[in-house]
């Protein structure tokens, strides 16, 4: 019988995410004045999302002056993109401590980035807590 060490693996990838050690790609997220540059490991993103597999391919990817892969996502806020990166790197999303609007933005961003398991998780959370979403701001929720 094989022993699994998923927690160790998740901890190691969390450290890699936090230290940015040997990153090879830069993603610029958000719109002015809330723009943020995120240093990432393209291999991890390509492994976890078909969108990034294409975005970082030789057919589509751009490189900056330092040779890093370079991608702009102005339509996704830094907060939402960091939630996505935490999911991609070490599989954690904390829905409970997010505003409803952020959770809905996360759903749209996960759909754009073709991260199906995250889409499913966000949808399940929204369905389970739909009354909270409607109560918090019914006009905005219906508008979204």
From TrEMBL:
InterPro entries: BTB-POZ/Galectin-3-binding, BTB/POZ_dom, SKP1/BTB/POZ_sf. Transmembrane segments: none annotated. It comes from the Eukaryota. Residues 23-97 form the BTB domain. Pfam families: BTB (PF00651). PANTHER family: BTB DOMAIN-CONTAINING PROTEIN-RELATED (PTHR24410:SF23), HL07962P-RELATED (PTHR24410). This is Btb/poz domain-containing protein 19-like.
């Amino acid at each position: 019988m094989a022993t699994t060490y998923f927690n160790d693996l998740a901890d190691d990838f969390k450290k890699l995410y936090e230290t940015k050690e040997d990153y090879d790609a830069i993603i610029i997220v958000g719109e002015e004045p809330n723009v943020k540059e995120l240093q990432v490991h393209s291999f991890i993103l390509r492994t976890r999302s078909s969108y990034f597999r294409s975005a970082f391919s030789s057919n589509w990817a751009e490189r900056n002056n330092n040779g890093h892969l370079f991608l702009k996502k102005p339509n996704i806020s830094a907060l939402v993109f960091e939630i996505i990166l935490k999911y991609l790197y070490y599989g954690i999303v904390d829905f409970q401590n997010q505003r409803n609007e952020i959770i809905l933005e996360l759903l749209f961003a996960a759909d754009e980035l073709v991260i199906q398991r995250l889409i499913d998780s966000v949808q399940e959370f929204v369905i389970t807590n739909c009354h909270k979403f409607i109560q918090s701001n019914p006009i905005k929720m219906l508008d979204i």
